[in-house]
Please model this.
Amino acid sequence: MILETPRLFLREYELSDLESLHRYSSDLLTLKYMLWGPNTLTDSLDFIKRSIQESERKPRVSYDLAIIEKSNNLLIGGVSLIRHDREAEIGWILNQAYWGKGLATEAAHALIRFGFVDLNLDRIIATCDADNTASHQLMRRCGFALVSVQKEVRKSRNKSEKNHDQILTELKEEDWDPLIEFTHQHR
Model:
């Protein structure tokens, strides 16, 4: 499976992606708000192997796709869509060297389109740490509406801290506007 945007390809992971994926999956700044990591090299390899296995599952439930920047053919991050019947949860991660260019938003739009058009989903949800303003802004740019702020549900990386609040957003198919897809301004 390959999805294409003006600047990106979203494709299945390959074993040859290990070095590029591990570069961001082991980076503490990139992972600051993630619920997983930092990965060991074995963790990163296991993720790629699971993604490859899941891509062959029938019916498929999980879509983990590598984000490839067209201009240099480099793997710069990943997006995921986990399906639950007619709903799904979307997520993304981007190597910090590529932050602030609208690339995660572009990748998310492509996966949202895939979810509503190809998978015939009714609703897609997205969550993020309440302190992760960049992800929350991305959700708003994609048309997600705030559902709730869930108090202290995200585990803190620092065991001496209390759990973090989480923002839960949703995008319903009837509220999705495919025309806003690539018209936003890049910083």
